[in-house]
Each structure stands twice: as structure tokens, then as C-alpha cells.
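Hey forum,

I'm writing up a methods section and want to include a predicted complex as supplementary material. The small molecule is glutathione. I've pasted the protein sequence and the SMILES. Can someone with a working setup run it? I'll credit the forum in the acknowledgements.
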Amino acid sequence: MIELVGVNRSPYTRRVAITLELYGIPYRLQTLSGFGNRSEVRAANPLGRIPALILDSGETLVDSGAIIDHLDEVHGRERALVPPAGPERRAVLRVVALMMGACDKALAAAYERNHHPPEKVHQPWIDDCLAQVRQALRAVDALLDPVSSYLLLGRLTHADVAAFVAERLARGLKIDTDTETPRLRALAARLADQPAFRATEPQ
Ligand SMILES: N[C@@H](CCC(=O)N[C@@H](CS)C(=O)NCC(=O)O)C(=O)O
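Reply by user p_vandermeer:
Happy to help. C-alpha cells for the complex are below, copy them as they are.
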């Protein structure tokens, strides 16, 4: 069976786990974290990052974007959570890039805080990273039509999954999404009730 290496509190791992659930692909979660299980993670991914996806053939895929591209191919490009081509595909991928970039910046801020001795933490860098996160979240919040259940195309896409994991991470870093990005917060709350999202809730 396919093995997903990672932990669902990682936004990158969780977006892969949600996609596996939505596509109905059976998998086993090998619970390893980038900092807590360095040697095991580095054995799966020389870069030492989660997620990694180990296929039945033994081939190991790394990086959530590349893993999801493979899952889209296996599931079928026509049925995937992103259109196969054209402006609608570009619109979905733009939101995914904004939201996964926001995760990158949020983690850069968290790493500055958590992995440096207190006297070497540079608060202006943290503030700047979090300002970029907020701005990206606001741009996606502005796309949300209050009467539509999803961000784009009137259906669930990778844009919603990426927005969900980014909102969750932002909230974990004390960004008040209830006040700052209320439509995005409401989308995330609705998605949290769907089975694929519930099944991947970190323990
Ligand atoms: N671009 C990568 C980012 C993966 C990533 O940064 N994962 C974090 C966990 S949330 C990690 O493993 N960090 C450990 C490190 O960078 O050393 C992806 O989309 O999979």
C-alpha cells in the first residue's frame, strides 16, 4: 500500500492526505516529522522534508505539489481537483501558489522563532513574513463569493484544499482569521465538516 510520510499538522502533508482521501486512494500514514524524526525523514527524502509518498513500486515522490500532480494523473486529469488546461486551471493554480506560499512564509516566521536562540530572533523578519501571509490570505478571502460553497468553479478544487491548510496554519500562528479574513474562515469551517477533512484531522 502507498505510504505517506509526514504528519497531518504539516499543511503540506495534510493537503496530500486530503487529496488521497478525496480520490479514494488507500494509503498508510507513516507518522514522521521533519524535526522530530530527522534520520528517518532524510532516508525517505534527502532534503529532510515532509511529505514524501512511497509508491508500491518503491519509488519515492517528494514535495506536495509534485505528489499531488502524480495523484491527479492516477485519478484522471479530467476528474482531478484542477481542470486539465486553460484559464480555469491557471486560476486554481494561482490560488494554490498563493496559499502554499503563505504556508512557506508562515513557517519561515515559526522557524525564526523556534529554531534560533532568543537573543538571535529578529522580530522585524517575523513581522514581515506574517505580513506577507496576511496579505495572501486577504487576497484569497476577497475571491470568495459569500453565496458559493467553494472558492472557484462552483466545486471543490485544490484551491480550497490549499486555502484550508493555510488558514489552519495561520490560525495556529495567532493570526485572527475570524476578524481578518472572515469568508476564508467560514470556508475552512465548512470544509472541516467534510469526511476527507475530518479523516485527516491531526490527533
Ligand atoms: N515545498 C514543500 C515544503 C515542505 C516542508 O517545508 N515541510 C516542512 C514541514 S511542514 C518540513 O519538513 N520542514 C523541515 C525542514 O524544512 O527542515 C512541499 O510542498 O512539500
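Some notes you might quote in the supplement: The chain has two domains: 2-75, 86-194. Residues 102 and 133 are 5 Å apart (CA to CA).
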